[in-house]
Design goal:
Blueprint: E1 4-14, E2 22-31, E3 34-40, E4 50-53, E5 57-61, E6 63-65, H1 84-95, H2 100-116, E7 119-126, H3 135-145, E8 148-155, H4 174-188, E9 197-203, H5 211-224, E10 227-232, H6 236-246, H7 250-256, E11 264-268, H8 274-283, E12 286-289, H9 291-296, H10 304-309, E13 314-316, H11 329-340, H12 367-381, E14 398-402, H13 415-421, E15 429-432, E16 435-439, E17 442-443, H14 448-463
Helix pairs in contact: 2-3, 2-14, 4-5, 11-12, 12-13
This protein binds zinc ion.
Zinc ion binds at residues 67, 69, 125, 231, 267, 319.
């Protein structure tokens, strides 16, 4: 049985399509989760099974999160003044107590936070599996929450005894990792357009996996036709680690292992030099920009305008949730916009090592650039042609922001810019795959208060031995 949805009377609708079309007094019509018509209200059919009056609201495509660690919602606000390696070494022993129940609960918490703030598609990078922790628990949570989800099966195999950063107790045997990667692809990966669940393979970082595992994971992903994801060029300490251990900068190291190309995206990409940016662009290797995390851990500022100019697909990631420690993509888009305005501009005049010395400028990242990173940029990074903008034959994933809120008083002349220039607010309505998941600011798929109480008990258990 088909199911139709009509959204009408929106004050403004920004499609983020190829030409950046925006409409006033507008809406869209969708059938079975797929958009058939977008435009002014006069162009739309008269009725549908479900009709939503969006008067006074701004409609945007659903936001897309390209990098996250949902389990870290159990350990927020710890090691508050540490850099990356200190922060990791503080948290690894606590994370060693993670269980399947913890994965399930923390995934629901993080996904609730994402949905309530307008994210309709998220990736997650789960890379440690102590006790009975498993990817299956996270996938179950995502299905129950109603979000479109890319589950990245992460891994760590290079423990301290072999020169890596994590304690051996949170690493896994490489045969076990590869066998589980193959299992979850077979069990869960959906290849068709409008897929709600896809699997990604994601060894954690240069300092926690071996080159052999990177190579074998890439070969497996390419045999199975799934995407590859890891952390890369996040900090200068990582760069130093790669130079000392592998004799190469992080990007050259990753490239030497087959980790570049249109099926690969890397989180952070803060410390890229101009030549590396050009190589990313030429190979269409993607980047997940995580501005809050990069500020929190004092990692640096990613050269986003230079990457985009070179043709690198760039999306946004909330990262964390122990290095953010929140998960709100509109806030992330706002920071992405503002951070570039104080960033050194790094084009041709960058010395080796990736540090530049020129002042940023106010036009480095516009409001629409920032929202584009959060929508169609994210879709490109995740390799999706069915989400990220609003047009016929695209998924009915969208959000509605109430323009009558006090935050938008005085900004009605450009409500799209106001979505990130004003303090970001939660959307009143969130629709994923043609289904309402958030209505009147309420998440329909979870009792948030009861859930938070349960989450806090599990988090306290993990911290009790700390
Ligand atoms: Zn991360």
């Amino acid at each position: 049985m088909t199911r139709t949805l009509l959204l009408k009377n929106a004050t403004r609708l920004a499609t983020f399509d190829d030409t950046g079309s925006e409409f006033e007094d507008a809406g869209l019509f969708a059938r079975d989760g797929v958009i058939e018509v977008v435009g002014s209200s006069a162009m739309l059919p008269a009725g549908a099974d479900q009709v939503i009056d969006a008067s006074g609201h701004l409609i945007l495509p659903g936001l897309i999160n390209t990098h996250h660690h949902l389990y870290q919602t159990l350990t927020r606000a710890l090691a508050p003044d540490a850099d990356l390696f200190t922060w990791l070494k503080t948290l690894y022993p606590i994370w060693a107590r993670l269980t399947a129940e913890g994965v399930y609960l923390s995934s629901k918490t993080g996904l609730a936070e994402l949905l309530l703030s307008g994210c309709t598609t998220s990736s997650d990078h789960l890379y440690l599996f102590p006790n009975d922790a498993c990817l299956d628990a996270q996938i179950e949570a995502a299905r129950e929450m109603g979000i479109r989800f890319h589950a990245a099966r992460g891994s760590m195999s290079l423990g301290q005894s072999a020169g890596g950063l994590p304690p051996d107790a949170v690493t896994e045997d490489e045969d076990t990792i590869l066998a589980d990667c193959e299992r979850v692809i077979g069990q869960y990966h959906e290849r068709q357009r409008f897929a709600m669940l896809r699997i990604v393979l994601a060894p954690c970082s240069p300092f926690s996996v071996t080159p052999q595992l990177m190579c074998e994971t890439a070969a497996l992903a390419r045999r199975e036709g799934v995407r590859l994801h890891t952390h890369l060029a996040e900090t200068l300490e990582e760069e130093q680690f790669c130079l000392e251990r592998f004799g190469q900068r992080p990007v050259a190291y990753a490239e030497s292992l087959g980790w570049s190309g249109p099926d690969v995206w890397h989180a952070h990409c803060v410390h890229l030099n101009p030549g590396e940016i050009q190589r990313f662009g030429a190979s269409r290797t993607g980047a997940a920009h995580c501005p809050t995390s990069n500020m929190r851990l004092a990692s640096g500022i990613a050269p986003v305008p230079a990457m985009r100019a070179a043709g690198v697909p760039v999306g946004l990631g909330v990262d964390g949730s122990a290095s953010n420690d929140g998960a709100q993509l509109l806030a992330e888009a706002r920071l992405a916009m503002l951070l570039q305005r104080v960033a050194p501009v790094r084009y041709g005049a960058t010395p080796p090592g990736g540090r530049g010395g020129f002042a940023g400028h106010a036009g480095a990242c516009s409001a629409r650039d920032a929202l584009s990173l959060a929508t169609r940029g994210g879709a490109a990074v995740l390799g999706r042609d069915d989400i990220g903008h609003l047009a016929p034959h695209m998924a009915a994933d969208f959000i509605a922001i109430d323009l009558n809120r006090i935050e938008f008083a005085g900004a009605q002349h450009d409500s799209v810019a106001a979505a990130v220039f004003a303090q970001p607010v939660p959307p009143a309505l969130v629709v994923v795959n043609g289904k309402v998941v958030v209505r009147d600011y309420q998440l329909l798929t979870l009792d948030v208060s009861a859930h938070a109480e349960h989450h806090n008990r599990i988090a306290a258990d993990m911290l009790s031995a700390w």
